[in-house]
Automatic annotation (TrEMBL):
Keyword Ion transport annotated: yes
Assigned protein family: Belongs to the SLC12A transporter family. K/Cl co-transporter subfamily.
Biased amino acid composition, Polar residues: 15-46
Name listed for the protein in its UniProt record: Solute carrier family 12 member 5b
Gene source species: Astatotilapia calliptera
Compositionally biased region (Basic and acidic residues): 79-93
Composition-biased stretches (Low complexity): 945-963
Subcellular location: Cell membrane
GO biological process assignments: cell volume homeostasis; chemical synaptic transmission; chloride ion homeostasis; potassium ion homeostasis; potassium ion import across plasma membrane
Catalysis performed (reactions): K(+)(in) + chloride(in) = K(+)(out) + chloride(out)
Length: 1052
C-alpha cells in the first residue's frame, strides 16, 4: 500500500524541521542553546571547576549537557501539532506539548496494518490467484513480502541508530547516503506516495460505479461492447476521480485533524472486512453458499445475458425459450437459427464457491494466463468447438480485459505490501521509538504476510477458477468476487473496502505534501524551495497543490492496473536504498553505527536490495528505467548545485574507504609510463593580505591539467603556528577561492614555517599522501631577482631547483607569467615551439600535447626544434625525429638547427666579467641595503661608459676606477677556472638565445630545457644570469626540467 504519513506525518516538513538551510546538522552536544543561554557564572560556580574556566565558552558542563540530551526534541512538527496550531490560531497560548505516549501497538503495529492492507487485497487479489494460480500467486506474495521483511530489518537497524525525526525513509536515506541520494530517492518516494493516492481514488471509484451504484455512471456502459465499453468506463473513472480528488484535497486543506479523527474508522473497516472473509471461509467448510455460475460448454456467460441458466424451460407442459436462447438465436422460436457453438454445447450451472473441502484447490493450483479479449473457460470441462469457425457472440461471454502475464501480476500486487514505513514516520509520537519501531513493523509485516499467503491458498481452495478470473464479477451478477466469499454479507466487504480506499487516499494526500515540504526545507533542491512554504500553522499549501496536480495525472490514466506498477517502481527504489544504506553502514563500520536492533546483517540488506532491483525490472523494465532516470537526473542536479550538507552519510564513508584502497594500491609501485601524467604541486607566494601574487599560475595549471590528475596548490606563511594560524587559514581560503574561480580541481596546502625557504622545502617533501604524490613542481620565475632586496628570493628559487633534482621531480618554471593567457582567452592561430636540447624523459613532448587539449591552445600548431652540433648528421637527425614523433602519435613540424663552434665574442667576455665582478664585490663587502643599491647603480653607469673590447679570460681587465686584484693564494687558480667555465656557459646561452629568438620570437609559447643549477653554491647569481640571457627577448617561456624518468612511450 503506501507509507501513510497521516499522523506523522508531516513527512519531515514541519516548521521546525531539519531543513533550516544550514550546511551542517546542529549538534545537541557542543555549543547547544541550552548551555550557551545558561548563566556562565553558575555553570562554573565554585572552586571545583576553576581548572576549566578558560574553556567555558566552548565546553558545557556535563550537567547542562545531560539536561540538553534529556530534553532533546529535534523532531519536526507532525500532523498533531498542526491540529493544535489550528486550534490556537486565535492567539490563545498553546498548551505545553505532552510527552509522547504511543506504544508499539497503537503507534506502530496498527498504523502499519492499516497502510499495508488496502485496495489490491479487495479488488485484485482473487483475480491474481485465478490468473497466476495458487502456486504462482504464492511465489509473488512470498517474494514481495520477503522484500518488505528484509527492508524492515534494515530500516529497524537504521531507525534504532539514534533519533529518527518524522519522515521515515527520506530522513533515513538522506542522512545515511547523503543529500544527492536522499533528494533523488525522496522525490521518488514522494511521487510513489502521490501516485498511491491516485490508485486509491481509482479503487474507490471502481467500487462505487461497479459494485455500489452502477446507475451513477455519466457515460453509460449499457449496450456498448468492446473498446467502446472500456472507454466509457475509463471516462467515468476520470470524471468521478477528479471530483473525489478535489473533495479530498479540500478536506486536507481545511485541516488534517479531520483525517486523523477518521483514521480509526478506516482501520476498523479494514480489520472488519478481513475478518468477514475468514468467517466466510469457515462457513464454506460447514455450509457452502448457493452461488451458481452459468456455463455454455466450458465458457462463462455474462450474468446479465440470461435470467435462467438454461436454453429452454418447461411451462405448463410447453417448451419455452429463455433470454439466453434469444441472446444466441435470431428469434425466440425453437426453429430459429442459432450460434453454432450454442447448438453444439449444453448449458450447465456450477457452484461458484464449492467450499474449502471441495478439492477445487487442485484445479486452481497452476496459472491460466489470458490474452486480452479471450473468453474465460473452465478447466477440465470439455466443449464441442470447431477450430476453423470464428468465435461469434463473444459479447455474451465474460472476457479478459487485459493481457496477463507473471510480471504484470507482480507489478499490480506489490503496492499491497508497501506501507511499512508508517511506524518510523510516527517516531516523534512514540514513547520508546527504538523499541517500538522494530517490534511493531516486523510484527505487522509478519501478520499481513500471513494473511496474504493464507488468502492465496484459501481463495484457491474455496472459489471456482472461472469466478476467480472474473475481475469485475460479470459472471456472478456484478458482485465483488471477494465479497461473494464474505460472511454475513457481501456488503461488508464492499462498504469496508470503499471506506478503506477513501481513507487511504486521504492519508496519501496528507503525507505526500509534508514529505515534499521536508525535502524543500532541507534546501537540497533549489527549485523546490517554494513548496516549503505554507499556511501560518505550517500546513504545506503549495505542496498540496502540486501533489493534487500530479495525482490528477494518475486519475487521467484511469486504470488501476496501469497506475499500480508506476508506484511500485518508486516504492521499490525507496526500499532498495534503505537496504543499501544499512549494508553500507554495516560494511564501513563507522564509529557512529551502533543500532540497538541487533538482528541485522549486511548480507540480508544486500539480498533485500537485490530483490528490490529484480522486482523493479520484473514489474516493468521501461517503468524501472524511467524511475531510475528521474532519480539520476535529480541526483546530478543536486550534485551540480553542490548541496552543502554534511550529514555524516555513508557515501562519504565509501569515498574514504575507496580512497584508502586506491592509495594502498598506488603504494605497490610507481605508475607505468603510459599512465604518467603531471601531478603538479604549484608553489605560490602571498602578499601581506594573504592574496595570491601570481594568479595566472593557476590558469596555466588548469590549461595543463584539464581537471585530470592531482593538483596541490601550496604556499608558506612565515611565523609560528600558534601566532599565525589565522593568517594561514585566510591564505587557505584565498587559495580555495582562486582555485574555484580558475576551475582547478585539487587540494590546498598551507604550511607555517619560521622562514619561507624551509616552508617551501616542507611542501616539496610532504605534499600529497602515500602513492598519490606530486611528480612535478611548478614555480614562478623570480621577477626582480637582480634587486638587492630580492637576493633571498632567487636563492630560495635555486634551492627549489636543487631539491626537485635530488627528489627526481620534474620542474616547470613559467617566465613572464603575467603575460600568459587566462582561461577565457583563445588563440586562433600561432605556434607552440619546443626547443629540445637535451633529453628529459619526454616532458617537452608531452606538455604541448596536454596544453593543446585545452580550448585556449587548441588551434596552436606544434613545432619541435633540436640542435645539431658540428659532428652530427642534421638530415638523419630530422628523419629520426619525424619517425619518433610518428610513433608517439604527435603532430608537429620538425626542424634541426645547426650550431657550429664559433669564437667567443668580446661581448660575451665583457658580460661574463661584469657578472663576476658584481658578484665578487657584493660578496666581499657586507654592504647595507642602501649601499648595495648605490653600488649597483654605479656599476651600471660605469658599464655604459666603458667600451667593449676583447679581453682574455685568464687575465681579466677591470673597469676604470674599480680594479679587482685576484688574491695571491691557492684559491686564485680555482677562481680563474670558474671564470673560464662561466665564459663558456655565457657563450652557450647567448648563442642559443640568438637561434631561439630568430626562430620563435613570434611563438605563443616557447618550451625550453632548463639547465641544472651549479653543484656548489658559489656563483648562484651567475646561474640566474645565464637563464636570463637564455630567455632574453622571448615573451612566454616555460622552462622545463625532467624528473629523471621516461614520461612518454611509443607503445600502446
Amino acid at each position: 500500500m503506501l507509507n501513510n504519513m497521516t499522523d506523522c506525518e508531516e513527512g519531515e516538513g514541519g516548521p521546525n524541521s531539519q531543513g533550516d538551510g544550514n550546511p551542517k546538522e546542529s549538534s545537541p552536544f557542543i555549543n547547544s542553546s541550552a548551555a550557551t543561554n545558561m548563566d556562565k557564572s553558575q555553570q562554573y560556580d565554585g572552586n571545583n571547576m576553576a581548572l576549566f574556566e578558560e574553556e567555558m565558552d566552548t565546553s558545557p558542563m556535563v550537567s547542562s549537557l545531560l539536561s540538553t540530551l534529556a530534553n532533546y526534541s529535534n523532531l519536526p512538527t507532525g500532523s498533531k501539532e498542526h491540529e493544535e496550531a489550528e486550534n490556537n490560531e486565535e492567539g490563545s497560548r498553546p498548551s505545553k506539548k505532552p510527552a509522547p505516549q504511543l506504544g508499539t501497538l497503537m503507534g506502530v503495529y496498527l498504523p502499519c496494518i492499516q497502510n499495508i492492507f488496502g485496495v489490491i487485497l479487495f479488488l485484485r487479489m482473487t483475480w491474481m490467484v485465478g490468473i497466476g494460480g495458487v502456486f504462482g500467486s504464492f511465489i509473488i506474495v512470498f517474494m514481495c513480502c520477503s522484500t518488505t521483511m528484509l527492508t524492515a530489518i534494515s530500516m529497524s537497524a537504521i531507525a534504532t541508530n539514534g533519533v529518527v525525526p518524522a519522515g521515515g525513509s527520506y530522513y533515513m536515506i538522506s542522512r545515511s547516503l547523503g543529500p544527492e541520494f536522499g533528494g533523488a530517492v525522496g522525490i521518488c518516494f514522494y511521487l510513489g506516495t502521490t501516485f498511491a493516492g491516485a490508485m486509491y481514488i481509482l479503487g474507490c471509484i471502481e467500487i462505487l460505479l461497479i459494485y455500489i451504484v452502477p446507475q451513477a455512471a455519466i457515460f453509460k456502459i449499457e449496450g456498448l461492447e468492446g473498446p467502446e465499453a472500456e472507454a466509457a468506463l475509463l471516462n467515468n473513472m476520470r470524471v468521478y476521480g477528479t471530483i473525489v480528488l478535489s473533495l479530498m484535497a479540500l478536506v486536507v486543506f481545511v485541516g488534517v485533524k479531520y483525517v486523523n479523527k477518521l483514521a480509526l474508522v478506516f482501520l476498523a473497516c479494514v480489520i472488519l472486512s478481513i475478518l468477514s472473509v475468514y468467517a466466510g471461509v469457515i462457513k464454506t467448510a460447514i455450509d457452502p453458499p448457493v452461488f451458481p455460475v452459468c456455463l455454455l460448454g466450458n465458457r462463462t456467460l455474462l450474468s446479465k445475458g440470461y435470467d435462467v441458466c438454461a436454453k429452454v424451460i418447461e411451462i405448463d407442459n410447453e417448451t419455452v425459450t429463455t433470454k439466453l436462447w434469444r441472446s444466441f438465436c435470431d428469434s425466440e422460436y425453437l426453429n430459429a437459427t442459432c450460434d453454432e457453438y450454442f447448438n453444439n454445447n449444453n448449458v450447465t450451472e456450477i457452484q461458484g464457491i464449492p467450499g474449502v473441502t471441495s478439492g477445487i484447490l487442485a484445479e486452481n493450483l497452476f496459472g491460466n494466463y489470458l490474452e486480452k479479449g479471450m473468453i474465460l473457460e473452465k478447466r477440465g470441462l470439455v466443449s464441442d468447438v470447431d477450430p476453423d469457425s470464428p468465435t461469434t457472440s463473444s459479447n455474451r461471454y465474460v472476457l479478459a480485459d487485459i493481457t496477463s502475464f507473471f510480471t504484470l501480476l507482480v507489478g499490480i500486487y506489490f503496492p499491497s505490501v508497501t506501507g511499512i514505513m508508517a511506524g518510523s514516520n510516527r517516531s516523534g509520537d512514540l514513547r520508546d521509538a527504538q523499541k517500538s519501531i522494530p517490534i511493531g513493523t516486523i510484527a505487522a509485516i509478519s501478520t499481513t504476510s500471513t494473511v496474504y499467503m493464507s488468502c492465496v491458498v484459501l481463495f484457491g481452495a474455496c472459489i471456482e477458477g472461472v469466478v476467480l478470473r472474473d475481475k469485475f464479477g460479470e459472471g456472478v451478477s456484478g458482485n465483488l468476487v471477494i465479497g461473494t466469499l464474505a460472511w454475513p454479507s457481501p456488503w461488508v466487504i464492499v462498504f469496508g473496502s470503499f471506506f478503506s480506499t477513501c481513507g487511504a487516499g486521504l492519508q496519501s494526500l496528507t503525507g505526500a505534501p509534508r514529505l515534499l515540504q521536508a525535502i524543500s526545507r532541507d534546501g537540497i533542491i533549489p527549485f523546490l524551495r517554494i513548496f516549503g512554504h505554507g499556511k501560518a500553522n505550517g500546513e504545506p499549501t503549495w505542496a498540496l497543490l502540486l501533489t493534487a496536480s500530479i495525482c490528477e495525472i494518475g486519475i487521467i490514466i484511469a486504470s488501476l492496473d496501469s497506475v499500480a506498477p508506476i508506484l511500485s517502481m518508486f516504492f521499490l527504489m525507496c526500499y532498495m536504498f534503505v537496504n543499501l544504506a544499512c549494508a553500507l553502514q554495516t560494511l564501513l563500520r563507522t564509529p557512529n553505527w551502533r543500532p540497538r536492533f541487533k538482528f541485522y546483517h549486511w548480507a540480508l540488506s544486500f539480498l533485500g536490495m537485490s530483490l528490490c532491483l529484480s522486482l523493479m525490472f520484473m514489474c516493468s523494465w521501461y517503468y524501472a528505467i524511467v524511475a531510475m532516470g528521474i532519480a539520476t537526473c535529480i541526483y546530478k542536479y543536486i550534485e551540480f548545485y553542490r548541496a552543502e550538507k554534511e550529514w555524516g552519510d555513508g557515501i562519504r564513508g565509501i569515498s574514504l574507504s575507496a580512497a584508502r584502497f586506491a592509495l594502498m594500491r598506488l603504494e605497490e609501485g610507481p605508475p607505468h609510463t603510459k599512465n604518467w601524467r603531471p601531478q603538479i604541486l604549484v608553489l605560490v607566494s602571498m602578499d601581506a593580505e594573504q592574496n595570491i601574487e601570481q594568479p595566472r599560475l593557476l590558469s596555466l595549471t588548469n590549461q595543463l591539467k584539464a581537471g585530470k590528475g592531482l593538483t596541490i596548490v601550496g604556499t608558506c606563511v612565515q611565523g609560528t603556528f600558534l601566532d599565525n594560524y589565522t593568517e594561514a587559514h585566510k591564505a587557505d581560503q584565498s587559495l580555495r577561492k582562486l582555485m574555484e574561480t580558475e576551475k582547478v580541481k585539487g587540494f590546498t596546502q598551507v604550511v607555517i614555517s619560521s622562514n619561507l625557504r624551509d616552508g617551501t622545502s616542507h611542501l616539496i617533501q610532504v605534499g600529497g599522501l602515500g602513492g598519490l604524490k606530486h611528480n612535478t613542481v611548478m614555480v614562478s620565475w623570480p621577477r626582480n631577482w637582480k634587486q638587492p632586496e630580492c637576493h633571498q628570493e632567487f636563492r630560495n628559487f635555486i634551492e627549489v631547483v636543487r631539491e626537485t633534482t635530488i627528489a627526481s621531480i620534474a620542474l616547470l618554471v613559467p617566465k613572464n607569467i603575467s603575460s600568459y593567457p587566462s582561461n577565457g582567452e583563445r588563440f586562433t592561430e600561432g605556434h607552440i615551439d619546443v626547443w629540445w636540447v637535451v633529453h628529459d624523459g619526454g616532458m617537452l613532448m608531452l606538455l604541448p600535447f596536454l596544453l593543446r587539449q585545452h580550448k585556449v591552445w587548441r588551434k596552436c600548431k606544434m613545432r619541435i626544434f633540436t640542435v645539431a652540433q658540428m659532428d652530427d648528421n642534421s638530415i638523419q637527425m630530422k628523419k629520426d625525429l619525424i619517425t619518433f614523433l610518428y610513433h608517439l602519435r604527435i603532430d608537429a613540424v620538425v626542424e634541426v638547427v645547426e650550431m657550429h663552434d664559433g669564437d667567443i665574442s668580446a661581448y660575451t667576455y665583457e658580460k661574463t666579467l661584469i657578472m663576476e665582478q658584481r658578484s665578487q664585490i657584493l660578496k666581499q663587502m657586507h654592504l647595507t641595503k642602501n649601499e648595495m643599491e648605490r653600488e649597483v647603480q654605479l656599476s651600471h653607469s660605469r658599464n655604459v661608459s666603458t667600451p667593449t673590447s676583447p679581453t682574455s679570460p685568464t687575465s681579466p681587465a677591470a673597469p676604470a676606477g674599480g680594479a679587482v686584484v685576484w688574491p695571491d693564494n691557492k684559491g686564485a687558480e680555482k677562481e680563474k677556472s670558474l671564470l673560464t667555465t662561466d665564459v663558456r656557459r655565457m657563450h652557450t646561452a647567448m648563442r642559443l638565445n640568438e637561434v631561439i629568438t630568430k626562430k620563435s620570437k613570434e611563438a605563443k609559447l616557447v618550451l625550453l630545457n632548463m639547465p641544472g643549477p651549479p653543484k656548489n653554491r658559489v656563483g648562484e647569481e651567475n646561474y640566474m644570469e645565464f637563464l636570463e640571457v637564455l630567455t632574453e627577448g622571448l615573451n612566454r617561456v616555460l622552462l622545463v626540467r625532467g624528473g629523471g624518468r621516461e614520461v612518454i612511450t611509443i607503445y600502446s
